[in-house]
Amino acid sequence: MSEIALQQSRPGLRVPAGWIVTGLVALAILVPYAAPETFGWAKTYPARWIVPISDWLKAFLYWLARDLSFGLFTFKDMTRFVSGLFGYALDVPKALFSSGITFGDEPGAFHIPRLSWAGIIAAVTIWSYMLGGLRLAVLGFVGFGYILVFGQWDSAMVTLSQVILAVLTGVGGGIALGILAFRLPRLEGAVVAALDFMQTIPTFAYLVPLVFLVGVGPVSGMLATILYAMPPMVRVTMMALKRVPPELDELARMTGCIPRQTLWKVLIPSARDDLLVGVNQVIMLTLNMIIIAAMIGAGGLGFDVLNALRQANGLGKGLEAGLAVVALAIVLDRMSRAMVELRPVHGAEARRRRYLVGAGFALLIGFTLLSFAIPALEQLPAELRISTGNMWSDVVSWVNIHLFSTADALRTFLLIYILVPMKTFMVGFPWVGLLALVWGGAWSLGGWRFATGMTALMAFIPVAGLWERGMTTVYLCSISVVIATLIGLPLGFLGSRSERMHNALGAMCDTLQTLPSFVYLLPVVMLFRIGDVSALVAIVLYAMVPAIRYTDHGLRRVPPSLQEAGTMAGCTGTQRLAKVELPYAMPEIMLGVNQVIMMALSMLVVSSFVGTNDLGKQIQVAISQADPGKGLSAGLAIAFLGILADRMIGRWVAARRTRMGL
Amino acid sequence: MAMASLAPVSPTVPPAKVRAASDAPPALICRNLWKVYGANADAFLRENPEPTPADIHAAGLFAAVRDATLEIRQGEIFIIMGLSGSGKSTLVRCLSRLVEPTAGSVFYEHQNLLRMTPGELIQLRRHKMGMVFQNFALLPHRTVLGNVAFPLEVQGLPKEEREARARKVIELVGLGERAGHYPRELSGGQQQRVGIARSLAVEPALWFLDEPFSALDPLIRHEMQNEFLRLQRMLSKTIVFITHDFDEAIRLGDRIAIMKDGVIIQVGTAEELVLTPASDYVSAFTGHVSRAKVLSAGGVCVPAVPGEALGPVVAARALVAEVAEAVLGSELPAAVVDAEGTLVGKLDRATVIANLVGGGQ
Ligand SMILES: Nc1ncnc2c1ncn2[C@@H]1O[C@H](COP(=O)(O)OP(=O)(O)O)[C@@H](O)[C@H]1O
Ligand SMILES: [Mg+2]
Known about the structure:
- Chain A is built from 29 helices and 2 strands.
- By secondary structure, chain A is mainly α.
- Chain A has a two-stranded antiparallel sheet with strand order 1-2.
- Chain B has 2 domains: 26-288, P-loop containing nucleotide triphosphate hydrolases (Rossmann fold); 292-357, CBS-domain.
């Protein structure tokens, strides 16, 4: 489009605009290298040009917190009110699951015990049985049993009580917003735009402002979790309500439902399955946030894992706590999924279900009542607990002795031949060249307006003085994305070729996605120590899933007629793949790569824990130093990178699809 | 078996339906009803009250219903028939105001439906109207009982009362055993019985059925048609029934309206449509139909010469198919008499055979 415009405006010029742009970009990159004296300013961003964005942000946040007033109440009042509300709300599940209620401080004060561990395990087992049969029951029993026996119960219940409140709020708020957007078409556009934005922003961008406004503690951990987990629920609700067959809406009107009846008696119940899928997603995202929330004071299992990572010999303990997170995640995931599958039944089967639900409650309450008399039912006595901390330490030393040389060789190889040169190259890349590159790429995808917007996003990094950390981020992300894609593509290809492989990969991806991101770090650190290699491996493991899924899905969607056409044209298998199927599936695969990038970006702060020096690190430092400006600017930089990648790939995919007539 | 008695021969086919008196007062009337889809359709229609299809197309609009005028009588089964996309569903949805008509008027028992406030409309639908949907539109999370009681629940009836009433209707459609089942546990035919029961639960005076049996297998469809006729004999409601199947239309309907591209081409009894089709389109619909099942003895008989020797006596209202056996079994032409027993004409073998053999004129 812009190509034509350019040519028309200068009819005498015959050189295509694409060539000119390519030439200019090449100049912008090469000149700073060629003439470092004259064009030094174009290579390293001059310090005196740095705009003190961090300071401005800091001042803005202070103004928010101190001076902003809405007349009747100030912004500070509002945040206080919200955090107070959640604080009180959190007291309920906390008393139920983790602390019980004690009247007075002196020893021997009257104490109402929390829900007994025996009751919870019994109820979880019975309910799992009701939802998914024997297999799920065993899973539930083993999962919660592990948490109990390995002494993780107390932390797990702190976590669980937060998870419950976060899930309830996330689901409730998500459904409410979804309904609002569904009902008021004028609002819908705004909501969708906000959701798109939220999903391209990595979690950490809002961590620091949140801590600054609400303070460190369980409440801000929970608010961060809700902000992270709620958007998908809004989306799912809107989609679910739209998917209710129009005949049901007509039925509601024909029977004379008022709008409220239409919504609650017809639309929402009919959308049950889709909504429950959303609930499952909220649960998983909430569990994913456990450890990140612990960084801002949520406590519980997340804190145990973090603490272990910080200590020299804590790996064993960390693994135990990490496995408890995994157990919790898997059990809750499978239970909520089974709930989606559960179909209403009548007669004997329905009575059996009611009976099992009742039995679960009866045992839960029964054991809890018993624990008034038998304290061991409230708190498992220490001598009955097992710790494998020592065993894990032994494993760690065994690994150190036997595998270390291999792992270290790999690590050194990666560092010397790939990581360090790449990093040096990226950090030393002329900033003018990088901006020109982004501009040129975006211009060819979407014209000069789009290009200017994208370049502005990129320019934030040098202008805010974040060049080194920003480029470290870009380097770490791009290498992980490349590796994750290189692993994911062939796996996805195999999955698309055989049903068995497809199912096996599906199960693997499910498991990988159920594991909270931090858990990857523990074994990785054990092998590769602190440093970029560990971060790389952890990111790759975490971010690989969409590459596999989307490749598999994309290749499976190639229409059989097209494959036959390829075969009939005399293609060999490889030719068919390269010339017919891959091009067809490419847009889908690129969407997968887009997801990989998003997930890699969201792992950054996590990976900064193992010693990288990127934007994630800056956020982590900002949290500990309570410097909201620095944290927010680093968060914005990550968010901008995410949006940049998302929009560019989105354009590419859209253009490609139109060209293929899809 | 000469002229022993003038009583009509007992028909071999059981009487399919009780025909509504053709002079019953109209219950539902629509006049010059339009539904035009597209931007600013109502402004367009205000400026051109009688646009041609070309005008509408040129304006970038689409007319699903054009200038429909109908009078549906109290207690009759009125069929709206047409190919898929001809605007049948849109028309009935305009009659119940599920779809807002672009122009025209709809009267139900002398009330203008289009002037009603949302509150009045809710009351009218709650108490006077019932609708059966093609794809059943059952609520998946409710049992049969819950589904049938749903319209009563919406009205705010107490639980015992609504369930008692719902159970009665469920018995009526023969699903008493399955009141506790969920829709997904029922066959298609059973599901539509639930849909029918639900629409009858409020005892509506006006009953809309939008292709209720089209999603069912032919055998089940036949069974459901019988069921429908049985119910109507008991309940005598004013019915607007949509179908795209002419056989269904003649089995069930008192009068049939044929639609094409949003226009009502012809309204009449099955016999009128067969004998005097308004256009080739109508004859295409009626062509394949066995005429003997549509035409009545009175409709095809020819005047008898006074004093002519006649064979068996048949009723003028009886269908040709019903009297065929009697006519063919006799050497003499049959005497056709009306309800009072007056001779209206004669029916000979050749005419019966010509009509039995099929669609040909
Ligand atoms: N909301 C709508 N917007 C635009 N066109 C519509 C809409 N609803 C129905 N139509 C069109 O109106 C025509 C008649 O539809 P319908 O009444 O459902 O036909 P039938 O029930 O006879 O199959 C169809 O061509 C359909 O595409
Ligand atoms: Mg229809």
